[in-house]
Amino acid sequence: MVRVVKDRLADRGRTMVQARQANAKLAAVIAETGLSHAQVAKAFVRVALENDAREFAGVGRSHVSHWVGGSKPSGRGVVILCEVLSRRVGRTITPDEVGFVAEGASSGSALDWRIDTLVELTNLGRVDVDVDRRRVLEGAAYSVAALALPGGTWWTQMAERGGTRGAAGVRSIGRGDLDAVRDMASLFSRVDQRRGGGHARTAVVQYLTSDVASHLQGRFPDDEVRHGMFSVASELAYLAGWMAFDNAEHSIAQRYFGVAVKLAAEADDSPMAGHVLRAMAHQALDLGHHRKALDLAAASMDGQRYTRACPRERALFGVVYARALGMNGQKSAAAEALIRAENDLAAAQQGDDEPNRVFFFGEASLAHETACALRDTGDLVGAAHEFRRSVRTRKAATFTRTHAVTLGYLGDVQARQGAIEEACSTWSSALDAMDGIRSGRTRQVASNMRSVLSPFRQRGIRTVVELDARVALHLADMA
Length: 479
Hints:
Elements: H1 2-19, H2 24-33, H3 37-50, H4 61-69, H5 77-89, H6 117-129, H7 135-138, H8 152-164, H9 175-195, H10 201-216, H11 223-246, H12 250-266, H13 270-286, H14 290-300, H15 304-307, H16 311-327, H17 331-347, H18 363-376, H19 380-393, H20 400-416, H21 420-433, H22 440-453, H23 462-478
Helix pairs in contact: 3-4, 3-5, 6-10, 6-12, 9-10, 9-11, 10-11, 11-12, 11-13, 12-13, 13-14, 13-16, 14-16, 16-17, 16-18, 17-18, 18-19, 19-20, 20-21, 20-22, 21-23, 22-23
């Protein structure tokens, strides 16, 4: 009897080993990275939080060891792990390459410059507006590898491809249709500036992928109307991406930015392409990918993207380029870029024939971005001065979301300077401004307030205690 029990236990042990064999593929790729299991875990958590996958915040060395031993990450874990490894080895790592099958998410790069523009736009929109299928997008990870831009011949080929659009179109698309789409783009952009990316993004996507996509497949009376329709479609795709970025949906934002670049390329609209590349650089900066951000910002300033842009848009490109330079340790070049951006904005005149997409960029926005550049390079005094100038000069009722973010950043700088009560006063104003806003950036600002206030809670400072309670309530309401 004892022998029978032992044999059964031995059989069970052999079955368990067979069911969970060591993952040699994953072990080989980790070895290629040169990282320890603890370092892989740390990088994994960073990418997970970057993609708002907070369920993985507690991943540690033992988790990675278990994955190498034959277990599998849950949920989005496989896609996140592939992105971690891809960033380290400098090529796209697929789930199959590390012994897994990704469930519910594409294993490929977030951006594929070879896919037809209208096919990608339609497919992306269909998935995004479908509640069940949208999990595919939410399950993806922001891809650093996908930030590599196509070469010069691609841009030429895209402009040529755009020239052939509409020849076989059935529906006639005229200037009135173009004006209507421009009006809608302006409306949606103003809603975003006031209320944040969490409001009306689905409406933007539905309009873009139904009415506008139909227009793009129509018959145009001339190249001017065709160029204009593809350009405003690019602006709407950019806006869908920017709203997703603002709401911390980074992988979704990246995909819309990619479509926006393609549409701008088919429109042969260099400044519009630069506008999107600038946004991609901004996103990369916020996510800590400084080298890639500089590449993207430099691309936005390259050739006709800068020279054909209006002065206001040049200033916008330039100030993000300055931030990227500063974050890469090029302080002197960053200072020069800031001066150039100031000069470009000074050259902008009210009433100039400017595209709608730059209506928001004025003295307050320049001051905000300049302050970020100074803060990021350690100049807290200069940063506080520029944040105050931004607060003072902005039309808060129109640009409420950015006003709230600016106040949040100013409070953080004041706290870092040791003026905690002044910071609390500034943060109280920021919370006032956040009423009715749905934005991942404002949520992050509020979360940061609690982190900074944490060491002061037990000191009995009344303003700290009151503000901390108010921030906690705000975050609970936003959950």
